[in-house]
């Protein structure tokens, strides 16, 4: 009997470090990273119909309508690589309705990780964030500066990373968070995200290893 691969959700306020932790999780566990923010940004830069609809919402820091995002996520989750390698969902669900859409489809993670970070730290992380459009890697002008001058020259800033927009994104997050958490109370793990990224990853790593072991045990018991 083959053990079913891991299914993980990661959540937390804007700039709490979800993308940063996902890079490390993917490297160790080989899960398929599904980030709704990344998927939407790709649609926007490709100028697709979804991208054109989403653009206005994203640039002002509001949530893109559920029906657009939910179709995008459920389509991705049904693909072969996801079924084989397992999934790491980042940035979804972001509202009660989105969480309910997954429940209706019986799509449930093994574990729901929440990164807990203080508001003032979040704002600093957002405003200093830079992205490498070539590798997709996440940098920070102070915390994680780029390795070379060449990378530095090509880094971009997200249009929704101004202090004003971060504050409104944070407010939207706070309005929705409790209703989403209530769907996952039984598998919820809160992690202190105010610490260095390697220290945070150590905690997540041991949680995921534990879940994986439990899954293997249940498979053996049949
Ligand atoms: P999305 O891209 O998901 O944005 P977000 O949730 O606001 O999260 P971020 O990507 O801003 O932050 P992160 O937690 O990944 O932090 P990161 O690792 O980069 O969504 C964008 C938009 O798309 C939304 O506003 C909405 O419009 C739309 N959207 C997306 N999903 C949707 C949905 N389901 N429904 C509707 N609309 C949706 O880290 C941030 C910075 O901090 C970086 O510079 C990093 O280097 C630094 N950093 C990270 N960890 C640490 C650490 N431990 N110590 C110091 N610095 C750190």
From TrEMBL:
Coiled-coil regions listed: none
Superkingdom of the source? Eukaryota
As for subcellular location, the record says: Plastid, Chloroplast
Similarity-based family: Belongs to the adenylate kinase family.
Q: How does it assemble?
A: Monomer.
Q: Return the protein name.
A: adenylate kinase
Please tell me the species this chain comes from: Camellia sinensis
* Parent sequence residues shown: 3 to 224 of 550
């Amino acid at each position: 009997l083959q053990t079913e691969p891991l299914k993980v959700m990661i959540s937390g306020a804007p700039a709490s470090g979800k993308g940063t932790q996902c890079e490390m999780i993917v490297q160790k566990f080989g899960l398929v990273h599904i980030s709704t923010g990344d998927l939407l940004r790709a649609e926007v830069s490709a100028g697709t119909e979804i991208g054109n609809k989403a653009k206005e919402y994203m640039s002002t820091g509001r949530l893109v309508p559920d029906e657009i995002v939910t179709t995008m996520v459920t389509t991705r989750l049904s693909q072969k690589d996801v079924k084989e390698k397992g999934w790491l969902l980042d940035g979804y669900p972001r509202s009660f309705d989105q969480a309910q859409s997954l429940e209706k489809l019986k799509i449930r993670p093994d574990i729901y990780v929440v990164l807990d970070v203080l508001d003032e730290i979040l704002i600093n992380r957002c405003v200093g964030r830079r992205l490498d459009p070539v590798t997709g890697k996440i940098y920070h002008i102070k915390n994680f500066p780029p390795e070379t001058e060449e990378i530095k020259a090509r880094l971009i800033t997200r249009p929704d990373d101004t202090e004003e927009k971060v504050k409104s994104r944070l407010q939207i997050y706070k309005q929705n968070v409790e209703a989403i958490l209530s769907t996952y109370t039984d598998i919820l793990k809160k992690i202190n995200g105010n610490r260095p990224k390697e220290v945070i990853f150590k905690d997540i790593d041991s949680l995921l290893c534990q879940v994986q072991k439990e899954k293997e045990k249940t498979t053996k018991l049949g």
